[in-house]
Amino acid sequence: MIIMADTKEQFEAVIRLCREIFEKKLDDYGPSWRIMRPESITDQILIKAKRIRSLEVKKESRIGEGIKPEFIGIVNYGIIGLIQLELGFSDSVDITAARAIELYDRHITETKELMYAKNHDYDEAWRLMRISSYTDLILTKLNRVKEIENNAGRVVISEGIDANYRDMANYALFGLIKLVYGQEPTPL
């Protein structure tokens, strides 16, 4: 079993990678995503997850990019989704890049802390899973989110959209850890 310290180090490393991409995109575009409604963010995550699944099945990329950038995109759009749920969407860019980073850092920290708590309870079971299972779980969560969105955010017993965005980001981070560190599931 891999010790939790390794998980924390690896998690922090892939979060830094995602944050670096988020910052670079902010330099290029600013927080232009502020105009996106949550449903559009859900669809952006869907596009990325569908591409990952397509590449996993076809075993070939015709545009020369693998699944790593898509997992990074899922993490970052998941955090953007959490920001949009908190602030609501806007008709214009209404926050600075510095404010966007501040919000990103707060939401990624909350997401990471949730993973640490779940990881404690599940005893790092995610390490036994295949990357393709993370993809399927993300797609399942997306279908759930779309149903919740179609029901105007109402749920009877289930977690809300925010919890699903956090879970999708964490599944994508698990995938990134396995891609970056080359860890395959170990037999039971």
Describe this structure in a few short sentences:
By secondary structure, this protein is mainly α. Helix content is 71%, strand content 0%. Helix 2 packs antiparallel against helix 5 (131-150), helix 3 (68-87) runs antiparallel to helix 6 and helix 5 packs antiparallel against helix 6.
Write the layout of secondary structure elements.
Blueprint: H1 4-29, H2 38-58, H3 68-87, H4 97-122, H5 131-150, H6 161-181
Give helix and strand order, one letter per element, not per position.
HHHHHH
Largest sheet: none
Mean pLDDT: 91
- Report the uncertain regions: none
CA gyration radius, whole angstroms: 16 Å
So what's the overall shape?
globular
User: Helix/strand-derived class?
Assistant: mainly alpha
Question: How would you explain this protein's 3D organization?
Answer:
This protein is mainly alpha-helical and 188 residues long. 71% of the residues lie in helices and 0% in strands. The protein is built from six helices and no strands.
Feature tags:
globular, 188 residues, 71% helix, mainly alpha
